[in-house]
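Regression test case RT-17, inverse folding.

Input:
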């Protein structure tokens, strides 16, 4: 069964993000009157935490699907909010286009055709997912899409941008795989992903 986030759960995630920002503001500005912080912070957090795509599915670009496009857009919204909740990264103002494509296209996104991949995020073109996957009905396929959305959040927030290219790639993969594992546990899936990352960066730096 597809795991589509209903409105109540959507607002719960929004509330959690707003609450976290309020608590962070209270810690930072303890010298200000509590009432002032409470009056100012919610409005700021709400405007930053509710981009148009959260309430308007037409803002979400999904291509190459066989089936109900609205269901795929709802899934994209759900998984983005899951990725935000798991990683703690901010809710993005927009989402990347997602395309279900052939293996060759996915590997071009991932590594210019020099590797094998089921999903990939490219800063210019968005997310490509192998069309043999079924993210609507399969936990593993959903987790792969979430993994790539985590890469999008990393890019948008310049996570590990201060690292070398090699170290940044390793850190981002490690982070995305961790989020993917947490998601699979969260949905009580018995599936686990095999993480076979070899940190060659440290050896090269030495």
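Golden output:
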């Amino acid at each position: 069964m597809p795991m589509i986030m209903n409105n109540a759960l959507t607002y719960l995630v929004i509330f959690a993000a707003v609450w976290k920002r309020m608590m962070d503001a209270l810690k930072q500005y303890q010298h200000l009157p509590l009432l002032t912080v409470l009056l100012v912070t919610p409005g700021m957090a709400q405007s930053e935490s509710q981009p148009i795509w959260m309430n308007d599915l037409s803002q979400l670009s999904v291509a190459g699907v066989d089936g109900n496009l609205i269901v795929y857009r709802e899934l994209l919204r759900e998984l983005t909010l899951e990725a935000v909740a798991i990683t703690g990264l901010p809710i993005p103002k927009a989402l990347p286009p997602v395309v279900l494509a052939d293996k060759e296209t996915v590997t071009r996104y991932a590594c210019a055709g020099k590797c094998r991949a089921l999903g990939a995020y490219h800063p210019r073109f968005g997310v490509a997912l192998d069309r043999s996957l079924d993210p609507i009905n399969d936990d593993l396929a959903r987790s792969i899409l979430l993994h790539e959305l985590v890469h999008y959040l990393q890019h948008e927030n310049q996570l590990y941008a201060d690292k070398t290219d090699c170290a940044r790639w390793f850190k981002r993969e490690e982070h995305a795989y961790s989020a993917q594992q947490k998601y699979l546990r969260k949905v009580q899936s018995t599936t686990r992903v095999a993480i076979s990352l070899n940190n060659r960066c440290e050896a090269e730096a030495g």
